[in-house]
Every structure is written in C-alpha cells, then in structure tokens.
Amino acid sequence: MAQKNKKLSKGAWLSIGALLVTQAVSLFFSARKSGRNPWVWGGAGLVQFPLPAIAYLILERQAKHKK
Fold first, then answer.
1. In a 10 Å sphere around its CB, with 0-12 CB exposed, 13-18 middle and 19+ buried, how is residue 27 labelled?
2. Distant-in-sequence, close-in-space partners of 14: CB < 8 Å, separation ≥ 6
3. Tens-digit pLDDT profile for the chain (67 aa)?
4. Would the pTM of this model clear 0.85, i.e. be above it?
5. Suppose 41 and one of 27, 33, 57, 67 were both cysteines; which one would form an S-S bond, judging by CB atoms 3.0 to 4.6 Å apart?
C-alpha cells in the first residue's frame, strides 16, 4: 500500500498558527487575571488545541463554584 503524501497549504498552516497563538494569549491573560500561573497556561496553549482551554475552563468553573 503506497501512502499519498498529503501536504497542507500555507494558508492552513497560518490558520493553525493563528489559532494556537490566539488560544495561548487568551489563556495567558485570563490566568494572570485570576492569579493562576500564566506562563504555564500560555505555553500549554501554544502547544496543543483545544485541551488546555477546556482544562482551564473546567478548573476556573470549579474555583468559582467553591467560593
């Protein structure tokens, strides 16, 4: 079985990069505002999508619920 080499276009790579940077920046500022470790959340947002955002939202909801 020969596998076809499927390449993403430059536009697709730019979109993925923009998505990751947007997620990282929003997680960074939100974590800084709430007193969590912003560099960890921003770094996690740059590496993977959407798990860091989902995890952050769950943790924030739990923290607000405890108050």
1. buried
2. none
3. 566 667 889 999 999 999 999 999 999 999 999 999 999 999 999 999 999 999 999 999 998 888 6
4. no
5. 27
